[in-house]
Write a structure and sequence with these properties.
Blueprint (H helix, E strand, L loop, with lengths): L3 E3 L6 E3 L3 E5 L10 E5 H10 L2 H6 L4 H6 L1 H10 L16
Length: 93
């Protein structure tokens, strides 16, 4: 029997294999509080925001969910049934 979680960001019912702990304040900045994100949302958050932005501005679930880019992302990803649809791609410098 497969275990499912709800992604804290997009709200999709997610199989355990596609859930990851996301540190609200990055671990490298001594953050300890975590939430469950599907791999797609975790990847997207790290594509959109750098470590400093996550530490200073987007350090809560509420601030992440209120960002316009994240709102657009959530609208798009909720239509997807598969997980792992978004590969991690490095930002261009």
């Amino acid at each position: 029997m497969e275990t499912f979680y709800i992604c804290s960001l997009c709200g999709r019912k997610t199989p355990f294999a596609y859930i990851e702990k996301h540190h609200l304040i990055p671990k490298c900045k001594k953050g300890t509080d975590t939430v469950n994100f599907c791999v797609d949302c975790g990847n997207q958050v790290h594509l959109l925001f750098n470590i400093k932005e996550l530490e200073k501005t987007y350090n809560s679930l509420e601030t992440l969910k209120n960002d316009e880019k994240i709102k657009k992302w959530i609208g798009w990803i909720r239509k997807k049934e598969d997980f792992g649809v978004c590969a991690k791609i490095k930002k261009k410098k």
